[in-house]
Amino acid sequence: MDFAITSLLAHEILDSRGHPTLEVECSLSCGIVARASVPSGASKGTREAMELRDGETGRYSGLGVEKAIDSVNGELAILLFEADVRDQAGIDNRMIELDGTPDKSRLGANAMLGVSMAVCRAAAMSVKLPLYQYIGGISANRLPVPCMNIINGGVHARWQGADFQEFMIAPYGADTFRDAVRWGSEIYQALKSILLEKHYHCAVGDEGGFAPSVSSNQEPLDLILAAIEKVGLSPGKDVGICMDPASSEFFKDEKYHLRTEKKVLSSAEMVSYYAQLVKNYPICLLEDGLSESDWGGWAALNNELGDAIEIVGDDIFVTNVEYIARGIEENLANSALIKLNQIGTLTETVDAVHLCQSCGWGAFVSHRSGETIDSFIADMTVALGTGHLKAGAPCRGERVEKYNQLMRIEDELGDMAEFAGRDAFVRPIEW
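Below the sequence we write its predicted structure tokens.
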């Protein structure tokens, strides 16, 4: 059978932070070989599916993935030998059943995800379809707004800058995805010149954004506004701002500790803090504004700002339909971040996106801070029509490869391509 899996083979490679990860090859009886590589996060939700790491301190400081490789080359290869590569849901469910744990800790979510993505890519190749069309059908044509992380803070900047982890630009006023990428690149370069003028260091963080030693969490917003205006664009009209404070990282003893501003805020005070920022700046999306454990605070945050901007849950939902369903029921947000490796298989990721979309929620596709050059999420974003994604700054090869792939897709679609623009977000852009 031309669509039968004949082998699965994993290799240990390095991610963008220089840590080990795995690449999986899926070979078919027709001779096709497809590869996929697995990302890893720095700031992780406690309920994420479990990466399997070796724990041997004398090798890669315990971060090796030989155990996950053994899962692929051993049990998973045996399980899926001669399986029909087109049966994505069946393959993913068989892996989940074989693992038998609630968090995929026995075989490793990283092992299972590598197989899941490689199988999907092999299937697309076997039926001679682009990956985005194989996943989403021939009507998949919606190009997302690229939300580019151009100032890094928090753990991504080794706590040398802002407390908030990501300050992103969203060039939603462009006519095409390609124009949006150009705007993002021009703003990024303008920001660099502004930082140099102010004698800030211009080293970049894990996701390619600059990591200046700012004195507050408002200063990055002011710097970004200046960069947008420097290239002749209008903040709010042409380009919005998205933020991911990753607040679980500075939530301690039931309080939010803003190191740069020497403030310790309650949940209610943190909500008020964000409300003032939204009033003063063209912010269209706020991700992880509160801690993953602050469920009551999330309800208050969504009540305060959910009618005005997109409120995205990441650590609180971890791409898991169980937690997203609770968020929908309790009205905790209006969008969920979507990360393949938080849940461990493509099928579960698609289920999470479909749940969000069926309830009028946003689904915001995301890379991880430890990335590879694999552009799977670019195709997946178009396939699922999510309308926006974040893949880092327009800098560093593992980041720009996602944007480059989306430009290729837009070119391939030609007149059929539709750029999501201002409609990408679940709340109207009113600036």
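The mean pLDDT is 96.
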